[in-house]
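Input/output pair, single chain:
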Amino acid sequence: MSLQDDANLLEHRTDQRVGLAWTPIAGSLLPVAVTASQGEGRVIVTSHAALQTPAESAVAYVRSNAARLAPGLDGAWLTTHDIAVSQPWGAVPANATPDDWADAGAAVAAALISLLSGHMVRTDVAVTGALTPSGELVAVGGFTEKTHAATDGYVSRIVAPAGNQQAVGEIPDHERSKLEFVFAASVDDLQKGALAKHPLKGYSIAETAPAPAGQTVAAPQFGPGRGQAVVLTSELGWYAQHTQITGRIGFDYDLTLRVHFGDGTSADIARHVGDIRGTDLTFSVGDIVPVRFDPDDRSTVEIDVDAMHAAKAESQRRLDDGMVRAAEETLQQQESG
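Output:
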């Protein structure tokens, strides 16, 4: 992996949000993102056709068991919303096979449970495994290759099917020592091993799923000239400018946004986001971002970067609070034991 590729990977591996899981595909660690919008209960795969069947199986199982996997969610909610599954970043190796995509079924399930429940998939975790209709994880092929991709991708825990446990001995010592292995027999085991223990405070999927473009919905409470947008497409580019003293790497994005204005209407627009070097911002398919515009000229829509920084800081604060609560609970358990 080149220095530029490694920097690009790190830029995305630090992304923390619900509905996102990382999985090894044909020797590369890639993200799987799940988002929802008002619709008819469809499963829409926007990346690779070979992911359609595994995604449908994962969504079907989670839908049938939503009361247990995402307590408090109205069971009818999934029948009135479409689920979109995408690979928001990274190039898939040319040798990827349908079996490689089948092994991403567990990652789709983890990302969907995260989206519905508000429990983020831990950023240090990679997930692999195919799913049966009854929610069992099926052993994957090429387990050694998958663990190699995980360690190259800064993963410290891999959640894999219980059927792969005997293959740990085939992994080189220098890679095995870097990983914690969690072997899961079912989606319930997967949920415990991959997702954060505590949900984001105040999170509700019912308040985040956008409506299709052009549809009038109940107007959210934005201020004048404020709204929000869903990222429909995101193309990441990078460039390097070298000097005699130091090198410089920059990132930019070409985006298609579905903007939801404060009066309940929406429109699709294209925007370019220039050099974001030195920031922690990323733009992936399905992200919801704040926007601002001139109320008299909606062609002036811009992404509200300041608001994104504020929201990211608040999300990190909530994550830190959850980690503190988890540490306190562990300490109490140790003291009582």
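Residues 210-303 form one domain. The radius of gyration is 20 Å.
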